[in-house]
Give the backbone structure.
Amino acid sequence: MICHRCNGFMVEELLSDMDGQSSRAQGYRCVNCGEVTDSVLLRHRQLKQLPKKVGRQPRRLEVIALGGSSC
Ligand SMILES: [Zn+2]
């Protein structure tokens, strides 16, 4: 499962409503940005078939080697 926001990895998770009275539903949580998606939202997205937003990607840190060369 890939996050629709950041293309990060999503893990399966059991979700429950805020009041805790509703039954739990299966969902997915992005380990990268924390986006939560449940089966209902997934179904809506599949029905709409929205185009993927490619513009937002997770920031990649570039490691710059400092002090490697001697003067
Ligand atoms: Zn994400």
